[in-house]
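Hi V.,

You were right to ask for the full record rather than a summary. Here it is.
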Amino acid sequence: MTTDAHTADQPYLTAKGFCITSGLWLVVATFMGLLGATELIAPDLTENIGWLVFGRIRPIHVNLVLFGFVTPGLLGAAFYYFPRLLRTRIYSDKLGVVTVLLWNLTLVAAVVSLAAGHTQGREYAEMIWPIDMLVVAVFVLVFINLIMTVRQRREPVLYVSVWYVCAAVVLTGATFSLGNVIWQPTSGALVGIPDAILLWFYGHNVFGLLLTPLAAGVAYYVIPRACQSPLYSHTLSLLGFWSLIVVYTHIGTHHLLQVPVPTWLKVISIVDSVAMVIPVMAFLINIWYTARGRLGAIHADIGAKFVFTGTIMYFFVSIQGSMMALPQVQRVTHFNNWVVAHAHVGVLGFAGMIALGGLYYVLPRIAGKPLYSRFLADFQYWMVLIGVVGFTSVLTIAGLVQGHAWLNGETVYRVIPQIHVYYVYRAALGLMIFISAVLGLYNILRTLYFNPGEAR
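Predicted structure:
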């Protein structure tokens, strides 16, 4: 892995922009999540305030976590390590700044339109057609900047992180266009079962072909650098890359086992869901063996600490995901809070932790100064970790209560009082996450712009 490309006087404007974007929208996204969790406890809290009802808050929260927090955070790290791995400058920092500005404009438009009730009504694909086109545009701009950087590189060997990032941007641009049916501007949807199949092809791949490869790219860069040791196996990294691309693409239909989807498609989704153990373990073995005997170095670097914890979360969420794809398991776990727990440990625990790790690893390097406050970063680490583990625990319990009650013929509304206490715990944990997000944004801004240059 080559690391002698950039000099300290180069500004990393694009990386800075994405880092600030991630920190800022994490605050907004977690506030929306906290508000939604509070509404589940007290439904009358926002009564008669249309733009704050749960049905509008939830898609805002989900889309901001995906496209406002995690993706920009991972891209911020990528725009730092890309030129270092390729021994060249980023193709165009001006293009990068334009991309960051357009990205934030898209997010503002998404929040305003969803709060106003303008939605396509499809999970993970709620944004209306004009905003869909803006999302596609920003991915095209990111791809142009990255691929042109690869084209003008002085390093002949492409390290695996470069593979993952380029694949993530290209494949997401394609799957987003398909999943949001952008050739149907009036509806943004097909009709019936084909629409459900296409939606979940996209819905699952927004995690598997966007967040997962971007997070893997960050982990493959940060962990060897923090440990000051070479990657355990480049061959294993490529096995993990290609098996992820081949296997993950087809598993979205495991969300539709209860509906009249063709049986062959269900079988493929189940088999590939179980086969996900191949790319997952290839990645984890590679990272963990790289870090073997060097956990002290990881603990000493707050960025690596976040990233390594994210890889542990990846193990749990992937094993859980493979298990949930089995029809007998889905009889209990589907359509309830078990799935919500699974989503939180995947997006926040795995990809979110690694995004924060990437941020904290690159911030001092792009600022040319130490992190403003290691204490605040450590505090955020523990708040996020406690929040993720807490979310997973209480929502899994609530989901099992719901699933077994429904399996035994109980009606939906009679189960609600039984899970109310878990919703209270959920909101309390959400408050912790929100507070940590505010402190994290403060730490980011102080590191970049108001930092006296002395470590704390």
